[in-house]
Amino acid sequence: ASDLPASVEALTLQSTTTTSDYPGCFPSLNPMDIYREHIATELSKGTGIDAELIYTRLAWTNTLDKGDLALPVAALRIKKKPQELAEELASKFPASDLVHPPTACGPHLQFFCKPQPLANTVLGRVLNEKAAYGTNGNAGLKDPKDPSKGQKKIIVEFSSPNIAKPFHAGHLRSTIIGGFLANLHTVLGWDVIKMNYLGDWGKQYGLLANGFKYFGNEEALQKDPINHLFDVYVKVNGLVAEHDKPIKELKEEIKAKKEKNEDVSAQEAELAKLVEVSEDEKARRYFKSMEDGDPEALALWRRFRDLSIAKYKQTYARLNIDFDVYSGESQVKSESMTKAYKAMEQAGVAEESEGAIIADFTKHGAKKLGKAIIVRKDGTPLYLTRDIGAIIERDEAYHFDKMIYVVAAQQDLHLAQLFKVTELMGRKDLSDRCEHINFGMVHGMSTRKGTVKFLDDILRDVGDKMHEVMKKNEVKYAQVENPEKVADTLGITAVMVQDMTGKRINGYTFNLEAMTSFEGDTGPYLQYAHARLCSMTRKSELNVDELPSANFDLLTEPHAIDLIRLLASWPDVLINTSKTLEPITVLAYLFRMTHMLSSSYDVLKVIGSEPEVKKARMALYAAARQVLHNGMRVLGLNPVERY
Ligand code: ARG
């Protein structure tokens, strides 16, 4: 994602244009801003209404039949019936070279761009700016009109798997959505820090270390650390269960005897012995030695961690993701946690309860958040405690403007408690900068063999399936250069697009057949649309560098005009996405475009057209390909050129 560009509006342009004082207006980056600026200025001239008010109320439309921009006139706060006001404003709008006379449609004033100037601006820009078209490096500036004040900084914390445990669907979604949010902020000019907060600390690592002594194998660890550690983890958990059985039985016996007032001293002695040698107790002791900083214990744990990270990096690379920071529960300093409870105590948030320290949110106007343990009876911190320490450390280390936690909705309560504690500690300034981006569950994620442990297994399985699908078209298949690699990319696209279809909060069922189909709004279909545009360019035998000089006035058909209007709105789609923070905002736009494209091919033929028309149409398709490419890249997809 580091190659994603973000163009910035030239400063000189700002000082020479008088009208770009409108907030968030960057006519050199966003063609629709030219129109907003024009409409606001002209309408203000004709009516005396404040131009900035008009500017800020001009909205994009969901469908092209509602215009390219619409003004809900009620938002102008003029005491008049909106319908009448809309009619009146329509009649007062001066004749314009850029837009048709506006139409009043109920309480809305609809503006349609005149096609030729739009075509020239938009197609020229897309073909020249290429990957930068639609990006807006000004959006992420601390002061959009003064770049010298620097960029805003955002931490996107995402993926965050637990070492030696399965990388489950929740981590997959967090990875996909988090990667997208990082890309989105990058193209909008933010300084983005991608952080992976590993589950890498706790008693289970004591268990794992001991398990490795019994079941571990150095060679297997080096070769495939993630799977090997998971195997060890499963085996040692088997031991725990074995040891637990007699302990549980003995406990029951003691309880029953006590009820009958019988002597239990022999059983209690026996129980103590069993506990002493149990795997669980050994794990606790091992973890205690890690907490106490025992170098040998830490060295083994660190190797597990490092090897796992190295392997995770390979998997993330397949998804176009690289993290800037691998933090984790282990990295939170105990001083930070101590500092946090002190602050909590002072603020009256922390209280003692049966030897533990708890926060009772019900006493602080947050009934729904219940109570949370902050420090256990035995003095050890919890998941929440580490997050409290971490939020403070991150604030000190990065001075971020915003931090996003991309975590499953199952942890809604956890994050709400974290933010509330932070606020109650007197750090509302910090909690206000943090946001939980949640998402629903995935059901039935498994490979065809029925097993699922890790992301790699899933991606391989979907890739294999894609390969089978590709082989069905023998002629096409024979032309693909590296079919395995392409199948892998298509498989990843399939998984990601399925995940990004629908709002984040909705869960979905993992459906291999549906996601790998070329029909419907699927990943393979999106790739097909891109590859088809690439193949068209190859077959046209035109020099792509000459396309910007095409005569765009020749693009007069409704299909061509609508496609241009859609391409014009891409920068607005990105800005809108920065408000929704939903991948579907981008994806739905891309599918609108691919549908429009597929109905255009028969009407707007390239091959066989007059040379000038051919060139103009090819330029239009090349521009569409570019925008499709840009959108796919923001989503984290790798557009393929043929398959
Ligand atoms: N490792 C955790 C899990 O798998 C997710 C961590 C989420 N982030 C956080 N700051 N708590 O459940």
UniProtKB/TrEMBL annotation:
<keyword id="KW-0030">Aminoacyl-tRNA synthetase</keyword>
<dbReference type="Pfam" id="PF05746">
    <property type="entry name" value="DALR_1"/>
</dbReference>
<keyword id="KW-0547">Nucleotide-binding</keyword>
<dbReference type="GO" id="GO:0005739">
    <property type="term" value="C:mitochondrion"/>
</dbReference>
<protein>
    <recommendedName>
        <fullName>arginine--tRNA ligase</fullName>
        <ecNumber>6.1.1.19</ecNumber>
    </recommendedName>
</protein>
<feature type="coiled-coil region">
    <location>
        <begin position="247"/>
        <end position="277"/>
    </location>
</feature>
<dbReference type="InterPro" id="IPR035684">
    <property type="entry name" value="ArgRS_core"/>
</dbReference>
<dbReference type="InterPro" id="IPR005148">
    <property type="entry name" value="Arg-tRNA-synth_N"/>
</dbReference>
<dbReference type="GO" id="GO:0004814">
    <property type="term" value="F:arginine-tRNA ligase activity"/>
</dbReference>
<dbReference type="GO" id="GO:0006420">
    <property type="term" value="P:arginyl-tRNA aminoacylation"/>
</dbReference>
<dbReference type="InterPro" id="IPR008909">
    <property type="entry name" value="DALR_anticod-bd"/>
</dbReference>
<keyword id="KW-0067">ATP-binding</keyword>
<keyword id="KW-0175">Coiled coil</keyword>
<dbReference type="GO" id="GO:0032543">
    <property type="term" value="P:mitochondrial translation"/>
</dbReference>
<dbReference type="InterPro" id="IPR001412">
    <property type="entry name" value="aa-tRNA-synth_I_CS"/>
</dbReference>
<dbReference type="Pfam" id="PF03485">
    <property type="entry name" value="Arg_tRNA_synt_N"/>
</dbReference>
<dbReference type="Pfam" id="PF00750">
    <property type="entry name" value="tRNA-synt_1d"/>
</dbReference>
<keyword id="KW-0436">Ligase</keyword>
<dbReference type="InterPro" id="IPR001278">
    <property type="entry name" value="Arg-tRNA-ligase"/>
</dbReference>
<feature type="domain" description="Arginyl tRNA synthetase N-terminal">
    <location>
        <begin position="33"/>
        <end position="113"/>
    </location>
</feature>
<dbReference type="InterPro" id="IPR014729">
    <property type="entry name" value="Rossmann-like_a/b/a_fold"/>
</dbReference>
<dbReference type="InterPro" id="IPR036695">
    <property type="entry name" value="Arg-tRNA-synth_N_sf"/>
</dbReference>
<feature type="domain" description="DALR anticodon binding">
    <location>
        <begin position="526"/>
        <end position="643"/>
    </location>
</feature>
<comment type="similarity">
    <text>Belongs to the class-I aminoacyl-tRNA synthetase family.</text>
</comment>
<dbReference type="InterPro" id="IPR009080">
    <property type="entry name" value="tRNAsynth_Ia_anticodon-bd"/>
</dbReference>
<keyword id="KW-0648">Protein biosynthesis</keyword>
<dbReference type="GO" id="GO:0005524">
    <property type="term" value="F:ATP binding"/>
</dbReference>
